[in-house]
Amino acid sequence: MDIQTSFLDLLFESGLLIDTGVDGLYGRSAQFEDVIAAFERLIDRFGGADGAEVIRFPSGMNRAFFETSGYMKSFPQLAGTVHSFCGNELDHMSLLKCMEVGEDWTKDQEATDIVLTPAACYPLYPTVAKRGPLPEGGALFDLQSYCFRHEPSKDPARQQLFRMREYVCMGTDKHVTDFRQSWMDRVAEMMKAVGLEVTIDVANDPFFGRAGKMLANNQRDQKLKFELLIPITSTAKPTACMSFNYHQDAFGAKWGLNLEDGSVAHTACVGFGLERIALALLHHHGLDTVDWPESVRKALWG
Q1: Engineering a disulfide at 11: which of 17, 72, 125, 187 sits with its beta carbon 3.0 to 4.6 angstroms away?
Q2: Would the pTM of this model clear 0.85, i.e. be above it?
Q3: Which segments constitute the Aminoacyl-tRNA synthetase class II (G/ P/ S/T) domain (predicted)?
């Protein structure tokens, strides 16, 4: 049995995660949720004084916004759409017959105006663009959402539906890169407080296809993306639990995000993978939070 499956089985046996029969789709226990809630309070203690505007979007987003984002050009393998039955009574009877004999009953489902949110920040850009030019000094937002990535796996740290907490900064290139660097400096103290050894390294997104390899290389060469890595199911390949992303003016140009002087805004975001951080804590400190080191418990629960 490999390490990933072994750790997943332990999480199931302890009741921390609940098996649904689909890899990467799990229920969570009260104790698991308590760890996430405690870590989010820690995030608030480090970032709350920055004065970010708090917005909470649902786990689905406007399909037209999703299409405009260009996500399907880069990550079609990860996207999830919402389909629904839109037929008549005869179509309904056909659907039920397919289910009775074990045939595919989804073939006549039609796409709705909703897609599953791929990243917490995606609904934000068109929302802010509708407000008009950004104020002097830019803007800062605090987001949290369930996100979907179609990558079923036995690795408990690679879930298909997971929560992402993000801070998103919009402004000049210096403004947003200073913001990103400030969080890269902060997280060393955060993770030390909860007893986790981490590394931060340059990274790239999983762009699709041959053209994607060039995009990934460019992203790494320009150091547009860094990840905070923590060993969970592998020490050789530690898990990315946070990301620090500089989008340059890509989203600004795409959505018409402008500064007061009419120039295109730059954007950057810092993302916390909440389930992954909870799993890292459980892996390193044990499956019962009562037995965690007192310093860690104090940092999380006071």
Answers
A1: 17
A2: yes
A3: 108-285
CATH number reported for the structural domain that contains residue 195 in this entry = 3.30.930.10
Sign of CA dihedral 31, 233, 40, 151: negative
Of 66, 98, 116, the domain-final residue: 116
Q: Are residues 255 and 188 in the same domain?
A: yes
Whether residues 58 and 97 share a domain: the answer is no
Residue range(s) defining the domain that contains residue 278: 3-80+118-301
| Contact (CB, 8 A) for 223 and 248 | no
Q: Using an 8 Å Cβ cutoff, are 267 and 169 in contact?
A: yes
Four-CA torsion 144, 292, 3, 275, nearest 10 degrees: -10
What is the spatial distance between Cα 51 and Cα 58, in angstroms, rounded to a whole number? 22
3 state SS for 125-184: HHHHHCCCCCCCCCEEEEEEEEEECCCCCCCCCCCCEEEEEEEEEEECHHHHHHHHHHHH
Give the Cα separation of 94 and 283 in Å (integer). 48
Give the residue among 294, 302, 153, 125 at the shortest CA–CA distance from 234.
153
Bridge partners, 228 (sequence order): 200, 242
28-77 tens-digit pLDDT: 999 999 999 999 999 999 999 999 999 999 999 999 999 999 999 999 99
pLDDT band for position 3 (cuts 50, 70, 90): low
CA 202 from chain center: how many Å? 18
For the cut 70, the answer to whether the pLDDT of residue 161 exceeds it is yes
Separation of alpha carbons 295 and 101, rounded Å: 58
Q: Does residue 294 carry a pLDDT above 70?
A: yes
Write the DSSP assignment of 197-251 as a string of letters: --EEEE------HHHHHHHHHHHHHTT-EEEEEE-SS-SSS-EEEEEEEEEETHH
Range in 30-39, 90-99, 208-217, 236-245 the model is least confident about: 208-217
Domain count of the fold of the chain: 2
